[in-house]
Specification:
binds cytidine-5'-diphosphate, Rossmann fold, alpha/beta, 2 domains
């Protein structure tokens, strides 16, 4: 192991939905030459499987039905040179676009409350991070997946700011969405993610808080890079 390898750390970024975790996590990974892993994409892919197989509809999920078919779900990430990002594959099919749409967003939080689903995802996430040099974002990364992560960041912003950002992102992609519907989705997910029994969204005691309601992308990245360099120096 050379000097650089021995200094690789794990960076866990948790926080509320739509507060820009993935933006900062991706930029940070790029600056450090680390792998970026979007744990939410894995829960989204499971949700898409449930929707396609009539195991989720109208906001409800057939929990036992989904648990029984968990073994059929294979999730992978493959690098796309054109978009310069990892894209999510469900059983060999690129589902990166589809998992970001509202039907999946509306069912993902109930799917993510299922203990067996979480156990299967956490196992894969730990495997992907075992060599360090990774930035992973989600809800339980600093608390459950990597409680020993050298740097933990807990991100938040007001629900209105988050809904507006998600609205801008989806309309820029040409999707027809309503701001009030998105705000409701953001608030519903906050409630379910924070109130669930299994690995609720919670700040780890040793996580640093990043409230980016009034920070732009450059400012938040600068803050995160400085924190990461401090930790790399000290480990
Ligand atoms: O991008 P956004 O913050 O809106 O959501 P995401 O990170 O794609 O995650 C989608 C949903 O998956 C969240 O609302 C959580 O319910 C769930 N999730 C989770 O329970 N644990 C994780 N580590 C990541 C996501």
């Amino acid at each position: 192991m050379n000097q650089t390898d021995s200094k690789k750390i794990v960076i866990a970024i948790d926080g509320h939905s739509s507060c820009g975790k993935s933006t900062v996590a991706k930029q940070l990974a790029k600056q450090l030459g680390y792998l970026y892993l979007d744990s939410g994409a894995m829960y989204r892919a499971v949700t898409l499987f449930a929707l396609r197989n009539q195991l989720a509809k109208n906001g409800t999920v057939d929990e036992q039905g989904l648990i029984d078919r968990l073994e059929e779900i294979k999730i992978e990430f493959h690098w796309n040179e054109a978009s310069r990002q990892n894209e999510t594959y469900l059983n060999g099919e690129n589902v990166e676009e589809e998992i970001r749409q509202l039907p999946v967003a509306n069912h993902v939080s109930p799917v993510a409350t299922i203990k067996e689903v979480r156990q299967a995802m956490v196992k894969q996430q730990q495997e992907l991070g075992k060599n360090k040099g990774i930035v992973m974002d989600g809800r339980d990364i600093g608390t459950v997946v990597f409680p020993q992560a050298e740097l933990k960041i807990f991100m938040t912003a007001s629900p209105e700011v988050r809904a507006q950002r998600r609205y801008d992102e989806l309309t820029a992609k040409g999707q027809q969405v309503q701001l009030d519907e998105i705000l409701k989705n953001v608030e519903d997910r906050d409630r379910i993610d924070s109130g669930r029994k299994e690995s609720p969204l919670m700040r780890a005691d040793d996580a640093l808080i990043l409230d980016n309601s009034y920070l732009n992308r450059e400012e938040q990245l600068k803050w995160a890079v400085e924190r990461a360099k401090e930790r790399i120096e000290n480990c």
